[in-house]
Amino acid sequence: MTTLRIAGGRVLLPDMTVERADVLVDQAAGEVLAVGGTDQGDEHLDAEGSLVIPGLVNAHGHAAMTLLRGYADDKPLGAWLQEDIWPAEAELTPEDVRAGTELGIVEMIKSGTTAFADMYFEVEEVAAAVDSAGMRARLGHGIVTVGKDEAAARADVEESLAIAREFDGEAEGRLSTAVMPHSLTTVSEECLSMAVEGAREVGVPIHIHINETRDEVEPIVGERGIRPLEYADELGLLEEENFLAHGVHTDERGIELLAKTGMGVVHCPASNMKLASGMAPVQAMLDAGVSVGMGTDGAASNNDLDLFGELRDAAMIGKLAADDASAVPAEQVVEMATAGSAEAIGIDGGRIEAGANADLAVIDFDKPHLTPAHDPVSHLAYAVRGSDVRHTICDGEVLMRDREVLTLDEKEVRETAEKRAVELVGRA
Ligand SMILES: CSC[C@H]1O[C@@H](n2cnc3c(O)ncnc32)[C@H](O)[C@@H]1O
Ligand SMILES: [Zn+2]
């Protein structure tokens, strides 16, 4: 057994208290062995002046969209997708998706994220990138059936199921999958039912966008006389293992359905603000017992993959939405981006204790903007930036040491992504 000792720092414990402690990791098992006064360990990571936290979990995104960062801004979701993003995505090659995903992964590792959920195309490439980078991820092929004939639509669902079967449990268990219909308005009722049934057969969750904008709610109410979550419930989509992105336009009845069924919600505040989608009722969801995680969404609607920005945004917009400065407090957003996200996407993570997955981030608190440190949890929510992350560890492996990414060549990843992005938008 090779052990890694993260020594000399303070540690964020599952009850959100902070203690001076070392963390000893069994690298082969990828598990935390002990927290406190530990053995020396074979390898050492310095955490002096730093806080060891659970690796952040980005519970909703499209990593390869880093290639479209800054390509189309300042539009609402529908126009943004139809006028800019989908035409560009129609030109994507598997090599583009690999390059964009690697860039997204470098950005996530450098900002303390150790696991993420990803909905996209060319999932073989996404899986290969995650495997070689050493991260943990729940991946899936995004199904869109609007504009397709029946055979092509069914083939898209079949592809999502085949991908879910193929990659679940790969990369020594770091990869898991889900069936991923894009939304209730971009996938036909028949294909949504096929996806629900197929996911049950394969034994994986469903990941879908729901209640993101009013433009999604209105056609469903107009056509069916019920709101999106009631429609999703009729389809059998609201299950404890499933999770939806956004949930902005969720009313009281919708919150009740989420709480009753255990369906997880992934809050993406930056994307919701940028696309002017609205303010999710996060405090009301939490009060009702809904499982809430956090996500960045893609880099074209955020425009970065630094989850620390999401923590701050969630705490800020949560107060505005509830008209209450005590709503969505610091501890709550830290919980949401760690244990909450892990629970929502169904992976083991988000806590530091013996036996837990060794997915960790070490934050350097020796910074002007983190001085004084009255309350480290307050700083995590309101003041820490991704660039304050010193080391990132996933499954016991050090992915970044003293800000040097060890599993990917950052310079090469950036150069390749830059070149492919320029060529991609040239073709679009
Ligand atoms: C079918 S793969 C995923 C699909 O989703 C698109 N997308 C990116 N961001 C959003 C968002 O906020 N709402 C809905 N859809 C989004 C992405 O461009 C892919 O086409
Ligand atoms: Zn999305």
From TrEMBL:
EC number: 3.5.4.28, 3.5.4.31
Gene3D superfamilies: Metal-dependent hydrolases, Urease, subunit C, domain 1
Residues that span the membrane, as ranges: none
Residue ranges constituting the Amidohydrolase-related domain according to the UniProt record: 51-398
Cofactor names: Zn(2+)
Positions with a binding annotation for Zn(2+): H60, H62, H209, D297
Family: Belongs to the metallo-dependent hydrolases superfamily. MTA/SAH deaminase family.
PANTHER family: AMIDOHYDROLASE-RELATED DOMAIN-CONTAINING PROTEIN, AMINOHYDROLASE SSNA-RELATED
HAMAP family per the UniProt record, alphabetical: MTA_SAH_deamin
Protein name: 5-methylthioadenosine/S-adenosylhomocysteine deaminase
Record organism: Halalkalicoccus jeotgali (strain DSM 18796 / CECT 7217 / JCM 14584 / KCTC 4019 / B3)
